Here is the input.
Amino acid sequence: MTRLASVGQLFLMGALAVTCASGGNTLAAPANEKTSVVELFSSQGCSLCPPAHRILQQLSRRPGIVVLSFPVNYWDYLGWKDTLARPEYGERQRNYAALLTKGEVFTPLAVVNGMRNCVGSDLAAIETAIRSTSTSLTSQSVPLSVHREDGNLHIEVGDSDAPPRHRSGKLWVATVLRSRSEKIGAGDNAGQMVTYTNVVRRLTDAGDWQGAPASYSLPLDALSKDGDMLVVFLQTGKLGPILAATLVDIDFNRN
Here is the structure.
């Protein structure tokens, strides 16, 4: 069954893929296409999470969809410590919960485009959320381009020919492993092998955005090297509608 807890209980407990083939290539999603982002919050101790990961893998194969898997650790007390979870991912989910679920935090939870939440093992609900949020965000999409040069990741956000439409936002860079399998040793999923898709190993705050065209530069060495891909995405506020997203293949051994 779905694991469910309130925010208070938890505190008491303690999109379209673009590939970078060479150093100077510029990466950008087509201006007329909105890339949808599906974030999955899951736990290895949750019985409904393995089906949710299979759904996430299925969604990742569809054009125009970027998926991110955020393993959380707040169910570790049940007897199995999640091998990939990080406390900050649970914090991200709690912040979403304050906005979207009246404080309820559960797994598996899917958040679509930063706007809609649904049970992560319900494909039909996720597809409905993708359609509804993509429609409302079509006129709000923001150009986003990425290229690497001299050991740095350079990101351009916004269009100088278009007036600012948003007051503020934040640019995120997620370092991910595109596929990772983990065998669960105890709990509801004991003995199962779970395959993660685009599992986040580090989420980097690349800087604030004030609605106008802006440039960002991050040294690749500052990004975690335990991933094989980056997801760059622009989100209004601290957590809100996601206006743009791009997948970037990176060989961390190259400058």
Notes: The first helix runs from residue 7 to 12. Residues 3-249 form one domain. Confidence is low (pLDDT under 50) at residues 6-32.
